[in-house]
Design goal:
This protein has 6 helices and 9 strands, in the order ααβαβαββαβββαββ. The strands form 2 sheets. The chain has a 7-stranded mixed sheet with strand order 3-2-1-4-5-9-8. It has a two-stranded antiparallel sheet with strand order 6-7.
């Protein structure tokens, strides 16, 4: 499955400009607001899951964050990020991996995911994601997970997704995580349509 996923996303990022995909954001909100809620500061270790071609890394570098990792299944997406950032790209740790197969080599203070988790429709993949999250996050760390809301789209980029709310994500994360905040977000695509998202912020128990 990882090879099929990789091919799908590499193809998307090779043939489409960044403003030709529905998830494009020039200003990454509510992600920046929620990182503040999680207590992230420039010295915090942050990993952005599925962050290839996202502008969150630009914003974090601009705010002086110095320990940023970006994980994406698509090398083409990461290459687009690197090209956009230029010399600043050397200040970011780039990880090309399927999160369901990834084995973290270090720990992070904040795990951020905008619209990667909802592509995992298989319970085994969801469990593998949670295992990676548990292995990557420090005790007391925060996980910010954004997905399509229960009234959001049922597909994205030709793939089925699972729509979530805070309860469904919390059940998958288990008792090791405490919900701190849940909010809805209306995302406007580059062509003007509106997609309903939810963002849930959890703290890992100490």
């Amino acid at each position: 499955m990882s090879d099929a996923r990789t091919s799908h996303w590499d193809n998307i990022y090779r043939i489409k400009a960044e403003t030709d995909v529905s998830w494009f954001q020039q200003t990454p909100e509510p992600s920046l607001t929620l990182l503040g809620l999680a207590g992230a500061k420039p010295s915090s270790a942050i990993i952005d899951i599925g962050g290839g071609a996202s502008h969150l890394v630009d914003a974090l570098l601009g705010q002086g964050f110095g320990d940023i990792s970006v994980l994406d299944i698509s090398q083409a997406a990461l290459d687009a990020d690197k090209e956009r950032l230029g010399a600043a790209a050397q200040n970011v740790h780039w990880i090309c991996s399927d999160v369901t197969a990834w084995r973290p080599e270090r720990r992070y203070d904040v795990w951020h995911d905008r619209a990667a988790f909802h592509f995992l429709t298989d319970p085994a993949d969801q469990a593998a994601y949670v295992s990676a999250l548990n292995g990557a996050l420090v005790a007391g760390g925060h996980a910010i997970i954004g997905t399509f809301a229960p009234d959001g789209p049922e597909k994205c980029s030709g793939l089925p997704i699972v729509r979530h709310d805070a309860d469904s994500i919390g059940k998958l994360l288990g008792d090791d995580f405490v919900l701190l905040d849940s909010r809805r977000h209306e995302h406007r695509t580059p062509w003007g349509s509106v997609q309903q998202f939810q963002f849930s912020t959890f703290r890992k128990r100490t």
